[in-house]
Every structure is written in C-alpha cells, then in structure tokens.
Amino acid sequence: MNLKIIAAGLISAAIAAPSAFASTGVVNFNGGITSSTCKVDGQDPGAGPINKNVTMPWVRASDMASVGDTAAKTTFRFVIGGPGDASCPNGTKVYAFFEAGSYGSVETGRLRASNRDNAGVEFQLYDKNNKAIIVGDGSQGDVKETIVNNTATLFYSVAYYRVASISNGALQSQTPYVISFEP
C-alpha cells in the first residue's frame, strides 16, 4: 500500500515539475479579411485561376559570366480593378504576394527552373523599385499601390540569376501569387 502511495506521489511530482524549456519570446500573427474583390487583368476573382505568362528572351551564357550575374530583366504587370469597378474601393492598398510554391528555393528566395535540374540559373523577381523579392517571405508587401479611380497597376520584373555552371536549354518556372488588399 505504501508503495502505491509513493509511486503516485512520484508520478504527480513528475507531471507538476516545471518544463526544462524556457520561453524565448512570442510570435505575433497579424492579418485581416477584406471584402475587396477587384478584377485582376480584367478577370473576376473566384471564377478560376488568373494565370499570367511572362516571355523572357533567350540569352547567351556569356551574358552571365559569373555566379550572381543577372540577365534579361523583363517587366510584367497586374492591372487591378478598372474604371467604374465598384468592388475595387478607392484608397485600398494592394500588392502581389508571390508564394514559394513548388519551385521556390528556401536557400535563395528565388525560383528554380521547373523544367530541368541543374540549369545553373534561377529566376529572380523584383518589385517596381528594383528590390529583390524573396518568394514566400512576408517582406514582399513593402511596395503597395493605392487604388485610385477603382484601378491600380502593379509593376514587377523577373531576371535570370546565375547560381552555378550554366547548361544550355529552355528554362521555365512558375510561382503561385495572391493579390493582397489592405484598407
């Protein structure tokens, strides 16, 4: 009987013992919900994916002689809303958030080629101020446009970025995106 009491006491003490891990801090998550449903490139959101094709020029390997060199920076845009688009309220801030998706590199924040391995080249996205975008990273919302006359245009660009020895051939990649709105 005393053995049962002692065992129960030891189990209770072990359960009540303070954790061996100390809290380092707190992670706060902030976000929100909006009713903005602006058109994207003239298409209604929710009616299916709104895909964009960006054609980049072919370049010579010598155009990117060293690791870290870029070439063929190509601009693309998203037109948000449009004149008279009442679902796209003036004063709302908007930007595109590029997710890492299947081809985002955690190490570099760039996009790997989707059609072949070891191409030696990744795709680097840039905001309109020529700042490199890290796909999947929350810092992307630094540059926002304000909707005026129910319209905003978001400008971005993409370039080839040399990461290793280059092998010749076609390159493709892709990234999911979300148009984000803030009041």
TrEMBL record:
Signal peptide bounds: 1-22
Any GO BP annotation: cell adhesion involved in single-species biofilm formation
Keyword match Signal: yes
Record GO cellular component, one term: pilus
Domain of life, source organism: Bacteria
UniProt main location, coarse: other
Subcellular location: Fimbrium
Entry-linked InterPro entries: Adhesion_dom_fimbrial_sf, Adhesion_dom_sf, Bact_Fimbrial_Adh_Pro, FimA-like
Keywords recorded for this protein, A-Z: Fimbrium, Signal
Gene3D superfamilies in the record: Fimbrial-type adhesion domain (2.60.40.1090)
Family: Belongs to the fimbrial protein family.
Name of the protein: Type 1 fimbrial protein
Organism: Dyella soli
